[in-house]
Amino acid sequence: MRWVNRTPRRGAAFLLGALPLVVLAIAYIIAAAARHSANPADKILPLPGAMAEAMALLLFQADPLSGEYLFWADTAASLWRLGVGLGIATISTLLVGLVLGTLPPVRATLGPLVTAIAVVPPIALLPILFIAFGLGETAKVALIVVGVTPFMIRDVAGHVAALPREQVVKALTLGANSWGVMLRVALPQAMPRLIQALRLSLGPAWVFLISAEAIAADVGLGYRIFLVRRYLAMDVILPYVAWIAVLAVVMDFALSRSSRRLFGWAHAGAH
Amino acid sequence: MAMLSLKNLWVEYGDKVVLERISLDIAEGSFVSIVGPSGAGKSSLLRVILGQERPSRGTIALDGVPLPAECGPDRGVVFQRYSVFPHLTVLGNTLLGLEFSASPFTARLFGSNRRAAMDEAEAMLASVGLGDSRHLYPAQMSGGMQQRLAIAQALIKRPRILLLDEPFGALDPGIRADMHILITRLWREHGLTIIMVTHDIKEAFSLGTRVLTLDKRRHDPHAPHRYGAGVVYDLALTRKAAAGADDTSITIDANHNNGHD
Q1: What angle do CA A186, A189, A190 make, to 5 degrees?
Q2: What is the pTM of this model?
Q3: B204-207 long-range contacts, CB within 8 A, separation 24+
Q4: Residue A52 lies in a domain
Q5: Given CB atoms, is B201 within the 8 Å cutoff of chain A?
Q6: Nearest CA to A228 among A18, A29, A51?
Q7: Which of B70, B83, B87, B98 to mutate to test the interface with A (most CBs of A within 10 A)?
Q8: Overall domain count for chain A
Q9: CB of B124 less than 8 A from some CB of A
Q10: Is residue A194 part of a domain?
Q11: What is the pLDDT of residues B205-228, one digit of tens each?
Q12: DSSP characters for B150-192?
């Protein structure tokens, strides 16, 4: 049978997908063991036991200075920043993207502005944000918002503007006004696309979060990674990176599931 | 008196003339089929009547009142594709027209108004043969069912004129025959005035009470875009009584030069 015609079954697909991860883990352990046999004090590739020990301190023991459980404090701070940033980005995308996509005069007025903002590398704006908003939470949230919103607006507005013209005409013949077209035709069809844009923005949002935390923060996953880097503490950095990956995958999965559940019509063939 | 009258209508895109000197009077209750070769401006004419496009010259009046250059609920439409909303169920699609007019702000209906509207929508769905499909989404239906839905969705607004833009062009021959029976029945029952653009000449003659043929009367081989299409044939078909509808006799109307002056 030709390879293009081989579709693995569900269980087989799961095993196939797990295989590279397992291979990677085994390769890491072999490499770490090799390094440790040469130098038992090696810090670059810590063994799983060392990682567990280092993480146990952060997970289960309160920090003597602040009295906080650092791992959980870092996670909560980072998720809060990410959540607020992405929340603001999503709501503004919905408002601006919908109006931009539906009303040609607004698109003519604001479209170039959104494009201009979108082409500026957000990290280049970080100093401005720090100067404008100080080194507190606002600047970090603002970086995420500035970083992902223009892309999301362009994506959603483009999708709405590309809805078949026939649909708008049909709605008008059914007695709709511009508001009605926006509310009953454009908005519901923009929602699945909005979730998709949000999923695609998760990666950049994490990049902006970690960058902002690395530069100026006193708590957060990115802050911790860049702090312990000074001590070559790979036994903390690697579990933190893995934890970020887990959080990102869970968010992506939750968004994809909720889109299928809420907007089943948009996922043809998934009924 | 004519219900819809077009006076000296021109449609031009830049220096390309698509339609020229279209003057027509369409009587209430007629079923007008528009045929013609590709590019003769059939769909342009329909879009102008619909209000989707503005004519470059001339006027259109409905019941003696000039039409605004915008689509409105007095003219319903069924396109070949994209006529129904993919995010609404069959019932939702049909209710939409009632909801838009009931509340300009929320565009929704609540309580007893909604129940009354649902009864009306379900009756309309039953009359197009979709009574059992009201919870399906368009993506779950065949092309023929989608067009039935599009017709129900348009008819619930009781439009003065129903415009059909190649509504059955993408359907299988068998389904198309069913749709012909359906549209003829609805046309009679609701006393509709229908203007239909079609590629299918047989369909044009079997359904219509009047067949218009659009084509270019003049042709400049060096500048083919300089002359637009006009109405070259305007045939009124007189039918026998409703019962024997399939036995149609064709007579050419005496004033078939209607569009020329």
Answers
A1: 80
A2: 0.86
A3: B204/B33, B204/B34, B204/B35, B205/B33, B205/B237, B205/B248, B205/B250, B206/B180, B206/B246, B206/B248, B207/B31, B207/B33, B207/B180, B207/B183
A4: no
A5: no
A6: A51
A7: B87
A8: 2
A9: no
A10: yes
A11: 999 999 999 998 888 888 888 888
A12: HHHHHHTT--SEEEEESTTTTS-HHHHHHHHHHHHHHHHHHT-
Q: Which of B71, B90, B103, B149 to mutate to test the interface with A (most CBs of A within 10 A)?
A: B71
Is the CB of residue B179 less than 8 Å from the CB of residue B121?
no
Q: What confidence tens digit (pLDDT) does each residue in A3-54 have?
A: 999 889 999 999 999 999 999 999 999 999 999 999 998 999 999 999 999 9
**Is there a single domain that holds both residue A74 and residue A7?**
no
Query: All domains of chain B, ordered by start, with CATH?
Result: 4-74+159-260 (3.40.50.300), 86-158 (no CATH)
pLDDT digits (tens, 9 = 90+) for B117-171: 999 999 999 988 998 998 999 999 999 999 999 999 999 998 989 999 999 988 8
Chain A residue with minimal CA distance to B162? A173
Integer Cα distance of B20 and B228 in angstroms: 5
Whether residue A39 is found in the same domain as residue A66: no
- In the block, which residue shows the tokens 């077009």? B6
Residues 136-165 of A with CB under 8 A from B: 164-165
Residues spanned by the domain of A40: 3-44
